[in-house]
## 1
Amino acid sequence: MEYSEIMVRYGELSTKGKNRRNFIDRLAYNVRKNLHQFPELVVKAHRDRMHIQLHGEDSQAVMDSLKRVFGIQNFSPSIKVERDMEAVKETALKMVKEQFFDGMTFKINTRRSDHDFEYDTNQINDFLGGYILKNIPKIKVKMKEPDLRLRVEVRKNGIFLSSQTIDGAGGMPVGTAGKGMMMLSGGIDSPVAAYLAMKRGVEIEMVHFFSPPYTSEQALNKAKELTAKLAPYAGHIKFIEVPFTEIQETVKHDVPSGYLMTVQRRFMLRIAALLAQKRNGLAIFNGESLGQVASQTLESMLAINDVTPMPVLRPVVSMDKNEIIKIAQQIDTFDLSIKPFEDCCTIFAPPSPKTKPRLDRARDYEARLDIDSLIEHAMAGIKVSEIKGGETFLNQQAEEFAELL
Ligand code: ATP
Ligand code: MG
């Protein structure tokens, strides 16, 4: 069917009292940004619904993109018909016929936002229901859980028909909860944590530590490509790369091996906190899950978290690996995450890290280092770029290489 608009129903934000307008405005802004590749669209955001007028744009492509905008409970592709019941009944019949199967049940749901219309909701339900029953002999009406629910909405500018309700991404519009720094490795967990942070309305900036020449260009590109996978949820995402080689070499040289991991992590967190401070971030997010590996015990979190008073939020903290993997597959980061490019933490991982590091020891060992100048050097080498949805980084190098041959 040739749809004329997508009708969007808001998610949780409907309950947000006074902030409602801000939420709706932000959602409309995000929808426009996420759908910028469809120039003909017109987005109209009202208090209870949003209408995305298609003006000839491909409804399926628009809906595919819309599925990745947080703050939407569900949406329905709709057809606009003149305010003439003869025209409405033909379109209604066509819609039902298209989806008809043997033994199908249906129901008409009419809603009037224009109460001046000459028929009321019951009359419209009866009229359309009767017409459909007469023209599709094998169909039955069912009030509870029908196979097909035909929604009819009478508005001042026309009558809108829809028969499908498609789940949206849920959550809150990105940007309504402030900004957070996301510590992104190339692993499975942190991209999922990033997705969950965005789902609660947080605008994230990725912070990625890399250690050339110990880590390859491909490892860095993998983190960028993971960011590109997540970017459609936010429009685009800033990617901050932090050179970490000097810190890792120094820590490896001067700190006993049992505390290598703890002290390295303290540096990472310090830098993330500093970046947050400079860039108006309100929190730090990471992909730690309790008990998953040595560095992810409560003792370890205490010893690492010590370096900043800023909240460090861990969206996947209580999830099992299987649960995290399931989300990674849904958001299509899993296959990328399991590509074997070494992360800086893997390469500098000590053979037997302390699973229960002591805070006093971590502080003592660290005090041997010139923390300020190490951090200053790392900060001097950061690079910030903006990554858009669908950008690729991993193949780029291989292609460039192939061209040289
Ligand atoms: P992930 O799957 O996200 O890599 P993990 O289970 O492998 O997590 P660790 O390697 O211990 O766990 O890392 C814990 C968290 O520390 C990561 O989820 C990430 O938030 C952060 N982190 C680790 N390495 C880096 C890195 N190179 N750059 C930025 N953050 C990192
Ligand atoms: Mg990891």
Note: The first strand starts at residue 5 and ends at 10.
## 2
Amino acid sequence: MNRILSGIQPTGNLHIGNYLGALKNWVRLQAEYDCIFCIVDLHAITVPQDPAALRQSTREVAATYIAAGIDAERATIFNQSMVSAHAELGWILTCLTPLGWLNRMTQFKDKAGKNKDSVGLGLYSYPVLMAADILIYQATHVPVGEDQKQHLELARDLAQTFNRQFGAEYFPLPEPQIMGPATRVMSLRDGSKKMSKSDLSDYSRINMTDDADTIALKIRKAKTDPLPLPDSIEAAKSRPEAENLLSIYAALTDASLADTIAQFAGSEFSRFKETLAEVAVAKLAPIAAARGRILSDVGALDAILRRGAERANAIAQPNLAAIKDLVGLLRP
Ligand code: AMP
Ligand code: TRP
């Protein structure tokens, strides 16, 4: 059986990069896979979080999953810390991880920057916990944006190391699913930087909660070059801002990048930007509205997370028992 696991950190507003790189694909994949989608709060605390804001953000991300079309009856939705097996397998895998593997992780280097000696150990071992998230469910597929590719390679390496060390084909090697025309959405202000929740400028990203005027304004202000739109994928490659906006349009309209380029070849940016803003508003406004409705009944939302955690635990606990037996850890 094919099983999907993926997650998003509750560290603030979701943006259109999270949506097009991950969430939108999850919605489609629900029909074909047994899906587990968590809100990875243990990953969020690898950097300092305000407790009240973390709780709020966890609910907001859960509400956005559902608002975007994840069906809580069919898929399993919960926050990671409710299923302790993630952390327990995380420790077992930590003991199998050579430091050299972690030293290569580019996300750690980006996030730690010059503060390598003062950031927490959790930020360093972040990819090991991510591997545990996936492997505890014996997940076979992991739909994510392109920035997670290196972490997924580490998860595959750890699965293999475990299998070899304990002489069992216990973990399947999880396949990354990096799909669609917008696997790496770039900042609207700088086509060489990834769109990110932590960018200081709110004009760098389109948030899932931005209203129509804000979306239109951000797109109008988005950095471009003075030429008309490119007429081929080749020509777009050397114009990162143009390529980014065209990729966003393609992903929002379920078109290919090639067809989108053909549609707008030679147009002025101002016209294209108006059309892009209309498409973005049409797609995001209903999600924002549904998110608001879902958040207005916190009791019902928390019940969904509790039920999701029960379902996740029902898979994770027996797996953890089997893993402990393989490792030689006595259990009650
Ligand atoms: P994060 O917000 O880091 O927890 O990311 C959650 C998901 O969104 C992951 O699958 C990421 O790969 C994806 N993602 C984050 N930023 C982007 C982006 N700028 N473009 C495409 N996917 C992204
Ligand atoms: N590291 C991922 C991100 O920042 C989030 C994440 C944590 C995740 N655990 C995961 C993604 C397991 C996929 C599968 O985007």
Note: The chain has a mean pLDDT of 97.
